Amino acid sequence: MLGDNRDMKIIAVCGMGIGTSVLLKMNAEKVLRQLEIEASVDATNVAVARESRDAQIILTTPDLVDQLKGLPSEVISIEHFFDLEEITEKLSAALL
Q: The pTM is what?
């Protein structure tokens, strides 16, 4: 189970790396705590995310998914980044 991997890295991505990605990061951290999964979560922009090769999961908005295709990470589109249920459902599906 991936939830046991203490080196797991998740990145939250938005266009500039300072708005939506920070909200996604904070909400992903809340969800991971509830799921009792240890992972580091970083907020960044698309350019930095495209260079990343060590993240297992990328959380982003639907409009950025195409820009992140082809990376070794699983790209998860989050429609409503304040919706903890959506984030929980999608992270659970990917990690558990």
A: 0.89
In sequence order, what DSSP letters do the residues of 4-41 get, joined into one string?
G-TT-EEEEEESSSSSHHHHHHHHHHHHHHHHT---EE
Q: pLDDT tens digits, residue range 57-79?
A: 999 999 999 999 999 999 999 99
Handedness of CA 49, 50, 54, 58 (dihedral sign): positive
Domains observed in the chain: 2-84 (3.40.50.2300)
Q: How many helices (H) and strands (E) does the chain have?
A: 3, 4
Which residue(s) pair with 40 in the sheet? Answer: 9
| 16 phi-psi bin (left φ>0, alpha ψ -120 to 50, beta other) | alpha
